[in-house]
Fold each of these.
Amino acid sequence: MSTFKIAIDGPAGAGKSTIAKSAAKELGFVYIDTGAMYRAIGLAAIRAGVDPDKDIQAVEKLLPDIKVDISHSKSGQLVFLNGEDVSTEIRLPDVSVAASDVSRIPAVRSKLLDLQRSIAEKTDVIMDGRDIGTVVLPDAQLKIFLTASVEERAMRRYRELCEKGIECNFDEVKKDMAYRDKNDSERDIAPLKPADDSIIVDTTGKTLEESVDMLLNIMKERREV
Ligand code: DC
């Protein structure tokens, strides 16, 4: 029996992970955060002293020795880099930028593509990222493109980091976000863009509850069709 796949794409801070997590719980689906996989590789580059914006070959050289795994716990998805749980460390602002830089490298993308597709073959999933509807799961039964203004996305991310006790300032967060928006949408391979058959949802000015409700209605309707 084929699995039911929901793809959620959109820029950083649009609320993808929070909304997808709540919806997955409600629907009994597994939630897969693919950004965390790119973050694990970004972290591996930082640890190896490699600048992924400048030295693509050095990142490619690291790849055979990088193993990324995910598992699920009560508190959500865990990400492992060569067996080490890096779920917290990958959220640091420097790792966000490194993740966006490594994600421009074709060898990095193809390494993660297999992992992402193999998970979606086994179980019903809500998978979020940048290229899920366009490249990873083009046959997903429902594709959502979630967006919000850059100002609002930066404010949400800033608050999230403050709540986690991670030191940062709003202007820096906004600058990083604008950098990632440009990087992620202008790269040659699998750029961030809505799939032709996606539903575009703008969450600017909406609370989390309103956004989750809106998405859940769309998902439930589609499952019944
Ligand atoms: O979703 P996130 O902010 O945790 O993702 C981190 C970076 O990884 C993001 O800037 C771009 C990249 N990414 C990607 O290229 N493709 C995906 N499917 C998911 C993330």
Amino acid sequence: MCPDRAPLIAVLGSVNMDLVTTTERRPAPGETVLGTGFRLVPGGKGANQAIAAARSSGHTVEFLGAVGDDLFAAELRRVLADSGVGTGLLRTVAGPSGVAAIVVDGSGENSIIVVGGANATLTTLTAAELDVIAKADILLCQLEIPVPTVAAAARHARANGTMVMLNPSPAQPLPDELWANVDIAVVNSGEAEQLGGTLDKVTHLVITQGAAGATYRGPGGESQVPSPRVEVVDTTGAGDTFTGALAAAWHRGPERALAWASTAGALATTKLGASSSIPARADIAAALAGEQ
Ligand code: RIB
């Protein structure tokens, strides 16, 4: 971390338009149920995490990704920029933007289907993107873009002294070479189970456990932080909010960063949608102060 400037966080990942349907009960296969509402909300794990990093800190956050040339693209760009995320390198490519069909039930739980669209075109990195990764303090990635691109970015980050935080979601088997370049892995308990022993090699491991909080395991030992009690409306984007806020606060040390991120993630569950529910720095600080 460069001591005489604010941290620079590069987020490489997806940006999607979320098609959010709310319903009391999710339909069984072959069944039709009546919904209670519908909204278009910008999302995507990459964009959500970039927005959370920027809103929770005011640090410099640069988003590396792609939108299509469709009707959703302008709104996806606008939400990132209005949240304080740098979009100077966000590509526009021919074809549709990424979309996610999301169903949220009465208990706030969701099911999501993502169609990659423009995100799937990120098969190589430009010189300008590589330059931002090399200059960043943290590179933050997920797995909604092609894995070889994530691996190339992590390799470049490691070669240039940039710390790599990976949220391996959606969980899938990854090349050893990618894991070797990851400094911090952030997973939920389901992903931790799926990835199993692979995670043993990572220096810093963070496991989120929803309402139960989050655990940390690293060179300094193990710790657990609780999650504040909140009224859950929709859990969509809560893990992304946790991860983005964690990346932005990492320089304060794992324990403080986890407490900050847990509060941010919990607040994100109190509103509908992904980017629409990501809290600002002042709200996280107030909620954290209220807990102590
Ligand atoms: O993690 C939540 C996100 O997953 C949604 O915003 C959706 O776009 C999918 O990427």
